[in-house]
Every structure is written in C-alpha cells, then in structure tokens.
Amino acid sequence: MDDVGRRRASASEGPRRKKRTRTRDSDAFVDFTELAERDARLASHASWETLEDGTRRAKIDFTSWEATRALTGAILAVRHGARGWDVPEGHLVPTTTNRRRYVEWIERLLAVSAPEGVKGGEGVVGLDVGTGASVIYPLIGASTRGWRFVGTDVTDEALRSARENVERNPHLEALIEIRDARDENGGRANVFRGVVREGETFAFSMCNPPFFESMEEAGKNPNTACGGTEIEMVCEGGEEAFVKRMFNESLEMKHAVHWFTTMCGKKSTMTKMRALFHVLRVPAIRTTELVHGKTSRWCIAWSWSKEAAANANVPLPDPERLAKVAKFVREQTASTK
Ligand SMILES: C[S@@+](CC[C@H](N)C(=O)[O-])C[C@H]1O[C@@H](n2cnc3c(N)ncnc32)[C@H](O)[C@@H]1O
After folding, report:
1. Least enclosed by CB within 10 Å: which of 30, 94, 133, 204?
2. Residue 131: CB within 6 Å of ligand 1?
C-alpha cells in the first residue's frame, strides 16, 4: 500500500498493515562469475581467483568505471538480450537493480489503474524523461515487458549514444523512439511542454532527474565509480526544482499521461512533493522506497485519472505474494495431473 492509501485506509484493512511500502525485485542476485563467463568484456575487466576446489571466481572492482560499465553491459546482454550496450567516457553508468525496481513499481501502478486500451501490459507506452546515454529504462521496459517508449534528452552526446544503443538491438528498435527535448529557440529545455505532441498519450512518465545543485554536492562515492557528467548529475535548484518543474508542466497536460512518476535521490524531496500534492488536492498519489543493499531511492507518482483516484486506497499488488500464489497454483495443478 502507498503512503496515501495508508493514511486514508479503512478499518477493514486491520492494524497489521505494513508500515512502509518498499519495492524489491526477486532476481536482484547477480552471479558475477556466471556473467563473466558469458560476457567477454566483463571477463576482461574482472579479476579471477582460483578456489581450493579448482573452480575460478570472478571479482569486480567497483572503483573502476570501466568495470562497472562492463558489468551493466553484461547484465543487459545476458539478462535482457540488449547487446552491444555502451555509454561515452565518463558518463553515468546505471546500476540495473534499482532501475528494474522502478520499472516493476510502475507495472504495479498500472495493475491498479491504467488508461483505456492498456490491459495486462498490452499497449503500454511510457515517456522516459532524461533517458540518458544509457537509455536504461526503455531497454529494460521494452525487453522485459514489451512496452513502447519515448525517451527524451537534451545533449547531443546522450541522444546519439541512446540512439546507437537502440540501433544495436533491432528487436527493440520498433519499441523505442529517442526524442530531443531541447527548445528550438535555444532556451531552457522543457520536460513535457513541446515534447509531448498534440493528441499523444502515455500510460506513464518516469524520470531519474539530476539530483544535485553542484558537482561538489554530487561528490564521489569512494566505493563505486559510476561516473556522471555535470548535465547528468546537476541542475539549477537540484532535484527538488526539477521535480517541481515537472509537476508544473504536468498541470498543462493532466490527461496526456495516466501516471506521472519520478525518482528522488533524497527522501525529503519525495515527502515535500507529497505534502504539496496533498495541499493541491492531486486526486491520486503513490510513493515507494526502492531498496538495494544500503542504498535507497524514493519514487512518487501522481495522476488526475478518475480511475486512479477511485482506486487511491487499493493496495498495489505485492510481487512476492503473487509469485508465491503462482507457485502454489503450479504445484496444485501438477499434482492433479
Ligand atoms: C541522472 S541522468 C539519468 C539518466 C538515465 N535515465 C539513468 O537513469 O541513468 C539525468 C538525465 O536527464 C537529462 N536532462 C536534463 N534536463 C532534461 C530535460 N529538460 N528533458 C530531458 N532530459 C533532461 C540529462 O541530460 C541526463 O541525461
């Protein structure tokens, strides 16, 4: 259940409701050795040790940008069938686990409320604001769910790299369009205005905004080397300003997007936005925390759809519970054969 639903929840949901909504995915475990055995670039960036039983084990140096890039490339190739993935020198290397969790959360939102014509994942079109050189969300969403995407960005390098990553995967090309969000007059790029075309509709929008106000604030995590250029990491006013701009522009196209969503690097951004949406009486609001090891990110979704508003208290389907039910049904069916 999301935070809004929890606050308004009826007594029938009982006192044992979960305290917080968190999104985990079931296949977060990554076997580096198995991946490196299947992916030559990762193998060349791994260090190999031989165990007592003679088997070899791959180790990844997370302080090396090349090694983290090779790891993401290997996961995309082996798990998602997205071959030849790359990003230009120094660009942000996305970790795939929390990106997958964000996509999974959107799937759960759509299970509770989706626009007309979208049923069971069919006909889903998403808008990825700031798709980046990596085009990571469209690659994951298209390869795992068959969703269609428009991915936007504002730099020549990101747009070129994103298009190349798509072109290297002809099986995904028909599902992903990369769009330049820059103002033709050279002004500050909008998020939705001028990007969403007349009559165009999306089941959702998603965004991993630049989180920081300066490169100093972005700092460097000594344990990982994920890279990140200034335009990827920084924007005027930081993520709070970016999300507010996104919200303000969303007011002009309330019904072009069924679920507007964004990730936040800081919990305080999510809670401030949630409070603002309450005050402004946004009819449907959902939040979640994406947890990966010691790192958390937060997401917030808002919608003006009548159906989303009517289902504001409906708990999002719990993937772990659904997987258990599916397993139980499979076992029962097998035992009656
Ligand atoms: C943190 S990066 C996210 C990249 C990728 N989606 C990911 O999750 O790794 C933010 C991206 O937003 C882009 N960006 C900044 N302002 C934008 C705008 N107004 N419209 C679209 N993209 C924008 C930046 O160029 C950058 O590629």
Report:
1. 30
2. yes
Residue 153 in marked binding region: yes
CA quadruple 117, 120, 121, 126: dihedral sign: positive
pLDDT digits (tens, 9 = 90+) for 253-304: 999 999 999 999 999 999 999 999 999 999 999 999 998 888 899 999 999 9
> For residue 180, which of 166, 169, 190 has the smallest C-alpha distance?
190
| Alpha carbon of 87 to ligand 1 centroid (Å) | 14
| Chain segment 8-52, per-residue pLDDT in tens | 333 222 334 444 455 544 455 788 999 999 999 999 999 999 999
- Collect all residues with Cβ–Cβ distance below 8 Å to 88 and sequence separation of at least 6: 133, 157, 161
Q: Is 96 in the pocket of ligand 1 (CB under 6 A)?
A: no
Cα 291 from Cα 47, distance rounded (Å): 28
Task: Report CA(132)–ligand 1 centroid distance (Å).
Answer: 5
Place of tokens 């076992």: 331
What domains are defined for the chain?
95-217+236-335 (3.40.50.150)
Decide: 208 in ligand 1 pocket, CB within 6 A: yes
For residue 209, how far is its CA from the centre of ligand 1 (angstroms)? 6
The helix or strand, by DSSP H or E, that contains position 127, with its residue range, turns out to be: strand 125-129
208: annotated binding-site residue? yes
> Ligand 1 in contact with 227 (CB < 6 A)?
no
ipTM for the predicted complex: 0.99
* pTM, full prediction: 0.88
Q: Is the CB of 232 under 6 A from ligand 1?
A: yes
- Which residues are CB-contacts of 17 (< 8 A; sequence separation ≥ 6)? 1, 6, 9
